[in-house]
């Protein structure tokens, strides 16, 4: 992936999975729901990713849209997530959702935490 500007991106496979999960959770973008991503302290490498569906935007939120999916993060998390792409892997060795983060200097084996 080549970033054209500073943002947060989503792969086609992750988009399809997000849409499926929104449908299963009975939420939709028509009702104001979006994908909230963020970074919290913890995990084996020091920082962990979090994501959820939300419908309340906060004043300092950073808002992006990629492939028709609205992605929102808080300003502090965005500093760690700039130009990151949300990916989804399935299959026998699939790890589900994971972040392809160019800012991470190292990440753990499970792909759920990282360090900068």
Short synopsis of the structure:
With 116 residues, the protein is of the alpha+beta class. The chain contains 2 helices and 9 strands. The longest helix has 13 residues, at 12-24.
How would you characterize this protein structure?
The structure is a single chain. It is globular and about 35 Å long. The model has no long low-confidence stretch (mean pLDDT 86). With 116 residues, the chain is α+β, with helices and mostly antiparallel strands. The strands form two sheets. It has a six-stranded mixed beta sheet with strand order 4-5-2-3-9-8. The chain has a three-stranded mixed beta sheet with strand order 1-6-7. It has two helices and nine strands. The chain has one domain (8-115): Sandwich (Hypothetical Protein Aq_1857, Chain: A). β6 and β7 (96-100) form a beta hairpin.
Portion in beta strands: 35-45%
Average pLDDT figure: 86
Helix and strand sequence: EHEEEEHEEEE
Q: Strand order, biggest sheet?
A: 4-5-2-3-9-8
Top CATH class? Mainly Beta
Number of domains: 1
* CATH fold label: Hypothetical Protein Aq_1857, Chain: A
How far is it from the N-terminal to the C-terminal residue, by CA? Answer: 20 Å
Report the major sheet: 6 strands, mixed
- The count of strands amounts to 9
Q: Report helical residue fraction.
A: 10-25%
Show unreliable segments: none
**Rg from Cα:** 14 Å
**Number of separate helices:** 2
Oligomer: single chain
General form: globular
- CATH H-level name... which superfamily? HesB-like domain
What is the CATH architecture annotation?
Answer: Sandwich
Structural class: alpha+beta
């Amino acid at each position: 992936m080549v970033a054209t500007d500073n943002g947060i991106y989503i792969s086609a496979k992750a988009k399809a999975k997000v849409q499926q999960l929104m449908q299963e959770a009975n939420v939709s973008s028509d009702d104001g729901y979006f994908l909230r991503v963020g970074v919290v302290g913890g995990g084996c490498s020091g920082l962990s990713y979090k994501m959820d569906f939300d419908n309340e935007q906060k004043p300092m939120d950073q808002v992006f849209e990629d492939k028709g999916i609205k992605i929102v993060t808080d300003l502090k998390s965005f500093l760690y997530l700039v130009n990151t792409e949300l990916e989804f892997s399935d299959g026998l060795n699939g790890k589900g959702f994971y972040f392809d983060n160019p800012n991470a200097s190292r990440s753990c084996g499970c792909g759920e935490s990282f360090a900068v």
